[in-house]
Amino acid sequence: MDYKLHYHPAKNWINDPNGLCFFNGQFHIYYQYNPKCTKWGNICWGHCTTTNFINYKEENMALLNDTPYDCEGVFSGNGIVIDKTLYVYYTSIAPAHPTQSVAKSKDGYSFEKYQGNPIIDTHSEARDPFVFYYNNELYMIIGTQDKVLLYKGVNPFHFNYLSDLINGNEFYECPNLVKIGDKYLFKYSSMIDRCDHFYLGSFDGAKFIKEKEVKLPLPKNYYAAQIFNHEGKLIMIGWIANPDYDGSLPFNGLLSIPRELYLENGDLKSKPLEAFEKYLVGNKIIDNDIIEEF
């Protein structure tokens, strides 16, 4: 069995999409990757490129777990282009506890880890940094076991704690905060129910005020979605897990079909990118055993 519309590496384990961006004329998709086998572990950043989200090129790994502060894993994070340089932020895993680190690249392929890493140490189970601009200033959010932390950047390497963006009875993984229309969309992945959750609301630079929870028709086993802005379009890609993996395939896991997010009558909607419209059957795209609704 193979998949024509869902990216996967040629072999081994894949999970969360990371560092999604358009850089130097193409889309770069990084992802959680185990280069050794089809099981989770030994996590590094895999890498693929595309110009149309239909045809992908699997690239060499982007980030390895090769320093004392990330020797147990290079976990999830996002990317942002600043002054023709791509900065990627990630959770660095070491025996003590997770920290947050940064690396930069001029070409999207070779990365230099910052010598001052880790750049944030909360001394707690914090993970999955998401960096974004608000009023032309850098901000970062990080998920924890009961809150989402908000930081403000002095520059791409130095961030200061600002406030708790959100508090709740959740373990917030892969948080995202993006502007959509005249609202803000807060998305997180819950370690409790293993689902992605979406809220519309407002953001004032210190707090996110929830207005309402919104739903999307996501496929089974969809998780850890990441959103990025390309030419005014909000594009979201998630991980589709395979909990019933039986070893018959050389790879384990897929990335979802990219969705464009938009507001319609105050509700969150999604649609496939234009390149995928020809594959629609009604409101569904079917790729072997994966069914995605829009």
Can you describe what's shown?
- Strand 11 and strand 12 form a beta hairpin.
- The chain has no helices and 25 strands.
- It has one domain: 5 Propeller (Tachylectin-2, Chain A), CATH 2.115.10.
- A five-stranded mixed β-sheet has the order 4-3-2-1-20, with no helix packed on it.
- It is mainly beta.
- The mean pLDDT is 97.
- It starts with 11 loop residues before the first strand and ends with a strand.
Quick tags:
mainly beta; 294 residues; 5-stranded antiparallel beta sheet; Tachylectin-2, Chain A; 5-stranded mixed beta sheet
Query: Which fold name fills CATH's third level, the topology?
Result: Tachylectin-2, Chain A
Instruction: Indicate the low-confidence ranges by residue numbers.
Output: none
Shape: globular
Number of strands: 25
> How many helical stretches?
0
**Averaged pLDDT, please?**
97
Estimated radius of gyration: 18 Å
- Please outline the major beta sheet: 5 strands, mixed
Distance between the termini: 24 Å
Would you spell out the secondary-structure blueprint of this structure?
Blueprint: E1 12-23, E2 26-34, E3 44-50, E4 56-58, E5 73-74, E6 79-82, E7 85-93, E8 99-105, E9 112-113, E10 127-134, E11 137-143, E12 147-155, E13 158-167, E14 172-180, E15 183-190, E16 196-203, E17 208-214, E18 222-230, E19 233-240, E20 251-252, E21 254-255, E22 259-264, E23 267-272, E24 284-287, E25 290-293
Parallel strand pairs: 1-20
Antiparallel strand pairs: 1-2, 2-3, 3-4, 5-7, 6-7, 7-8, 8-9, 10-11, 11-12, 12-13, 14-15, 15-16, 16-17, 18-19, 19-21, 19-22, 22-23, 24-25
